[in-house]
């Protein structure tokens, strides 16, 4: 609590008036700061956390109104340096758990978070707004000394040390990119010592300017070198206290709620051959501190890990009963406090893609950052193209449908719908018999038959598409590869297709039928998505109960993936000139057709400009092979 005056008289009265208009209920405001007027500068109490602060909230706007205990928060309404303000009608200004979560979210974006009483004469500062500081430039000559024969690095490396002029040149180039907030492209051959040449400037920039720096690589080997060798070397050589983290994608972590769900419904949700591996994973989940796949002492089949891994499509985030213990969010909290983050290209572009789609820097996998270094940068195009594109496969959609309902090899019914029925005795304690009957009836009469119908639509549409692609002649502007010779065992793939969809394909006689089949499939997927959302809506008032939360996670995960596949099909069928290449892939294997569709951006420069270059102050790309044609 503070008696510091944060508001002009006009702003204070505007806050009071807005609260009165809601009959004293909760209101959220966003305030923008301005320097003190001269009179305010003379006030002796203008201090925050022991530091003089020369600003006041001079402009304010209402962004949300609620009831006497809550209000929706508009995440995108504030900019770095602004202050989010809301009142506690009770007069008790202690922040709730939700307040703390929101304050953390805003604080990561440089936005302050204040709580006031209805009279606006008391203020609780949960998070201070970020006051822009002048950047401290790197001292290039001082850093070069570290890499000279009598420098700290040589003292630690001893006989492994080797002076390299190219390394010193690269350190200077990287440092200049930081000092001048530029994009830098650096080709440095094998043996240059690239990692130290960019880690030293990155580390000192982070320490001097309190900004995290992201290092992105393409291979696990280089990530391990950075985390296990190079960064520990710098920690030993330099008299600096710093932290670093290897950041992994969400799917690399066990979800405690999903693991609990599988433990309850092991025999309804798993195939017989998966039970042993799942049992081992569940035993490990009770003792692991890390919770990541790399901490597991065996490699489970993909189908097993998919059943227990964290998944952004289904995650309840702060609403999850296991949120405080969540392995992924624990790792994310650690990364938020680290100066140096090591990631791979695919994770970084997934993060940029999520943030670009949501306009919310907190929505991605990584905490906010403004400086990034790409090592092994010659792989950037493939990584970016993958994440700015879209893809759907026949078996990908079928796999999602079979999470709801399928038959085992012995003909037994399995899946989420059956598991939910088996939960009935537990659910009735939380949601009552009447609501339970509604839920079970919706699952039995709507969801279950829909799954059977849609799976046949998927097979029909994708198999028909593959057969049309297979018939297109090589001179039809395609990249069709004719069936390969097969061995006597018949195990090699045959009839491999990789076909770009051009206007020539659209005008083929067979395409009208393909279009019709995929339109029908998209409609069916949309209908099932809406039915699942309607189904989970019945349970939303009970989601704080663990058993209900398990259902919500699994069914929402299925619904969101179905919605994504519907969007892919819609975009694939579009004939607009939107800058995307559309393609068909497929092959035959063991009597089955494996096929898919996709869209890839023809030119990723616009996407990179929007999501990377315009959002970052420094971007450094380095590799041994960056140049093309000299």
Structure, explained:
- With 630 residues, the protein is of the alpha/beta class.
- Helices cover 46% and strands 16% of the residues.
- The chain has 22 helices and 19 strands.
- The strands form 5 sheets. A 6-stranded parallel β-sheet has the order 8-19-12-9-11-10.
- A hairpin with a 2-residue loop joins strand 2 and strand 3.
- The longest helix has 48 residues.
- The radius of gyration is 28 Å and the shape is globular.
- The relative contact order is 0.09.
- About 7% of the residues have low confidence.
Strand content is: 15-25%
Strand order of the largest sheet: 8-19-12-9-11-10
Task: Give the terminus-to-terminus CA distance.
Answer: 63 Å
Give the tally of β-strands.
19
Instruction: Characterize the main sheet.
Output: 6 strands, parallel
* Regions with little confidence, pLDDT below 50 for 5+ residues: 37-52, 68-73, 475-493
- Determine the structural class based on helices, strands and strand pairing: alpha/beta
Shape: globular
Which terms summarize this structure?
single chain; 630 residues; alpha/beta; six-stranded parallel sheet; five-stranded mixed sheet; 19 strands; 46% helix; globular
